[in-house]
Amino acid sequence: MGIEEVKRFFREKSFPGEVVEHEQSTATVEKAAATLGVAEKLIAKTLVFKQKDGHFIIVTRGDARIDNKKLKQAFQKKATMLKAAEILELTGHPVGGVCPFGLKNTVDIYLDESLQEFDYIFPAAGAPHASVKITPAQLQQVTGGTWIDVCQ
Question: What is the pLDDT of residue 52?
C-alpha cells in the first residue's frame, strides 16, 4: 500500500488532483506545513480510532485537537487511537502517510466540520513524503466521508 494505491484510488474516483512527492518529510503537521509553505491549520491530519465493534477514521485540520467528550457523544461509546503497527495493518499506510485514500480495508470515514472553512487542505497521500491538494468538498466526495463536529 502507499502512494501507488492512493494514485489508483484517485484514478478510479476520477479525481483530478495530483499526488505530490516531496524531497522533505511531510510526516507530521509541522513538517508538512514547512515543506508545503502553508499554515499548520491547512494540513489535514488523519486519525485512526478503534472501538469494541470496529474502526473509523477522522480527518481534522492540522491545528485541531479531538474533544473526547464530543467524540464519545458522536459515537456513543469510548474510542481509542490505534498504535502505529495497527494503523499500518488496517490502512496499508505508514504513520506519517496515513490518509483516507486507497485504504487496505474498508473503514468508516468522518471529516471534522472545521475543515470546511478552507478553500484547500493538504492531507497525506500514503507516504511520509507525499501529499495532495484538495478542497473539503472534493475530500468528502472521493471518500464518502460524513461531516461531524468532534474537535475543540
Answer: 87
The answer to whether 104 and 55 are in contact (CB under 8 A) is: no
Q: Give the three cell numbers for residue 75.
A: 459515537
Instruction: Please check whether residue 123 is in contact with residue 100, taking contact to mean a CB–CB distance below 8 angstroms.
Output: yes
Q: What is the pTM of this model?
A: 0.94
Name the CA dihedral angle for 78, 95, 99, 92, rounded to a multiple of 10 degrees: -100
Element (H, E) at 46: strand 43-51
Task: Look up residue 66 and give its three cell numbers.
Answer: 479531538
Regions of the chain short of the pLDDT cut 50 = none
For strands 130-132 and 19-21, give the pairing: antiparallel
What are the φ and ψ backbone dihedral angles of 108, each rounded to 5 degrees? -65, 140
CA angle 144, 63, 73 (to 5 degrees): 55
d(CA 148, CA 152): 12
pLDDT of residue 1: 60
